[in-house]
Structures are given as structure tokens and as C-alpha cells.
From TrEMBL:
It comes from the Bacteria. It comes from Streptomyces violaceochromogenes. Keywords: DNA-binding. This is XRE family transcriptional regulator. Residues 17-71 form the HTH cro/C1-type domain. The keyword NAD does not apply.
Length: 190
């Protein structure tokens, strides 16, 4: 896909990723070393030739010390105090079947945010590290079932269950429901 044909959010996201790298004074090679993502993948994401996956964004957020919501909010308009349903930004990782709606887009002065997430049946997403060490997450299952692994502890969550965790290491989210899963994620920066 050429940049002029890219999804507008992907195009703005790619430009922001390039800006962040430039702000740190890093070459693609340096960022690749820090993030564990190949130079070619980083280059394609910055040029919006590919839509970045949730795992890729998580790795970059870890390097830049941001949550995914913070990064995505930087390519969206400044959030209003009231965000109507129709105005809540939606981002999709087509590769993994992950869809996230920023219910309450983050604001620089606030530490918390709400995200509605959906995973398609069979979706399996692994994050090798948190975007911010010690990030607090509350996962409330609205519909379906989700298996969450934090480091070596596995949690089997069903409709109505809520998991609270501080994220220090790798995590894994697997959709354990044949109809998919929808959950609310409350994120609080340390």
C-alpha cells in the first residue's frame, strides 16, 4: 500500500512514530536494537506502508515510555471532557483480530483511561513487556471469555469477572470464547 492510499490514522501514526524516533536522535538501526523490531518493519510502519500490529506498537511504546492509548491519542485530536460514542476513536489490528475503542482518550494531566477491547475467536496476542513498567490494568469481561497470562500466572476470565494486575513483564491475551470477547480495560499509569 502506498502512503497516499494509507488509512488516515495509520498515516498519522506512522508520521508520529518517525517524529518520536527523530526526537530521540535514533537511526532505524538504533530503534531496532532497542525495540527488537526489524529495521524494515519499522521503516514500513513509519511510511504507513503497513498497519502496525498491537504487539509492534507495544514494543515501541515500551521504548518511548508511553501507553498505547497515549501514543494513539497523539495522532488524534485533543480529547473533549465528554466523548460521545460516535466520537470515540477506534483502532484495529487486522492481523490479530484486536479492536480497541478509546472510551476515554488519555489526557496528559490524567493517569487513567478506559478502553473497550474486542478479540475475535481464536485471537492470541502476546506482549513481551509492558509499555510502562508497573502499569496498573483492570480487565472487566463484558461478553465472552478471555485467558490472560501475566508472566507465569494464567487467569481464566468469563462474563462479569474482573482481573486487576500490575504489569511488570510479559502478558498474553487469548480469546477463549467461540463468539469472541468484549472487555473493558481500565489503565492507570504508575
Amino acid at each position: 500500500m502506498r502512503n497516499d492510499e494509507a488509512d488516515p490514522v495509520d498515516a498519522r501514526l506512522g508520521a508520529r512514530l518517525a517524529e518520536l524516533r527523530a526526537e530521540h536522535g535514533w537511526s532505524l538501526g538504533e530503534l531496532a536494537d532497542r525495540s527488537g523490531v526489524s529495521r524494515s518493519t519499522l521503516s514500513r510502519a513509519e511510511r504507513a506502508e503497513t498497519s502496525p500490529t498491537a504487539s509492534l506498537l507495544n514494543r515501541l511504546c515500551a521504548v518511548y515510555g508511553r501507553t498505547m492509548s497515549q501514543l494513539l491519542s497523539e495522532v488524534e485530536a485533543e480529547p473533549e471532557a465528554v466523548v460521545r460514542s460516535a466520537g470515540q476513536p477506534v483502532w484495529q489490528d487486522r492481523t490479530s483480530g484486536f479492536v480497541r475503542r478509546a472510551v476515554s482518550p488519555p489526557h496528559p494531566a490524567l493517569r487513567g483511561e478506559l478502553v473497550e477491547a474486542r478479540l475475535a475467536p481464536g485471537a492470541d496476542i502476546t506482549y513481551d513487556r509492558p509499555p510502562v513498567a508497573g502499569l496498573e490494568q483492570h480487565i472487566w469481561i463484558l461478553e465472552g471469555a478471555l485467558d490472560v497470562t501475566e508472566q507465569d500466572t494464567e487467569h481464566h476470565l468469563r462474563t462479569g469477572d474482573c482481573l486487576r494486575m500490575r504489569v511488570w513483564g510479559p502478558t498474553r491475551f487469548r480469546c477463549a470464547a467461540p463468539e469472541g470477547v468484549r472487555y473493558l480495560l481500565a489503565v492507570v499509569r504508575p
